[in-house]
Amino acid sequence: MFNTEYIKYTIKHNKAINMLAEKMGIDASILKRIRYHDMDKALNYLIKSAITAHKEHVTNASHHLESHVERQISDYIEMVLDWESARYTKEDKPLNAFQTLNKYYSEHKTCIKPILERLNLNKDSCAMIPEIYAKLKNVDVTNEEVLNNIIDYINYLRKNKIKTYYNLNEAVLKIYQSLNIKEQIYFKNHMDSDYLKQILSFKKKIRIGVFTHKNPDYDAIASSLAIASYITDSTNKEDIEVIPVIENTELLQEIKSDLKVYTVEEAKKIPLCYAIICDVNEKDRIYGLDLINSVDLNKRYLMDHHDKNREEIEC
Fold this sequence. Notes:
Blueprint: H1 4-23, H2 28-34, H3 39-45, H4 50-60, H5 73-89, H6 97-104, H7 109-118, H8 130-137, H9 143-159, H10 168-178, H11 181-190, H12 193-201, E1 206-211, H13 218-234, E2 240-245, H14 250-254, H15 264-267, E3 274-278, H16 289-293, E4 300-303
Parallel strand pairs: 1-2, 1-3, 3-4
Helix pairs in contact: 1-3, 1-5, 3-4, 5-7, 6-7, 9-11
């Protein structure tokens, strides 16, 4: 497995925050979300560099102040527990929550200080809970436990239809492909068989998404279908599949094509290797921007005749 030590480090921290939350009598609704604390990062470690996985986590997780998301009270509670529990497993982070707030995030005292008071952590002298520290000191996360945690997290995301900042199906495929034979067998035996069969079928083809703007006009629809048809007719259909992602409108129904056209919801189930963007170069006008963002930056191509805002789209 890739980045195994980082994943084990993350899972051990996950144990720490859960033990602490239970000991402190945190509400059941918050305990439920803390159950999977930082597991998005653990999953990402399996398929990306440690630096990239950490950066994506910090800029997307609501319990990190670096993320630009709307936060609720539960996010701040998880944030404070994250700070408080870090010292139990991370030797490089010896501060408690009160000290962390004052040293690194003092400009946020107004909104976080009430959380510290609510959790009785609003003092510099808050010590670690000995029994939790003792338990964690002897914890040794195994490779099997890593796989169990990853599989459990994937099932949780699928069951609850939770939106992620990465393409989950593509991530599962990449994870499976990164495992050795023994690990793959274990993964197969503990993952939903129908779902895994569906995911593994994707690896046989290179899939190219073709995108255009919302509420597409004739120009957008015709150019998208034209490039999709050209690629389809010019390549081996057993190796390459083109996925035109076009908003379903009355104009689309007027244009006849032998190609299957996908909505964003349908295309979400398909891991894309490449993305081609037609007749639009403004981010907020693109239909399926999240799908495009799931494709590696060097595999996105912009084909457009407008000059304005060309720099908005990373291709």
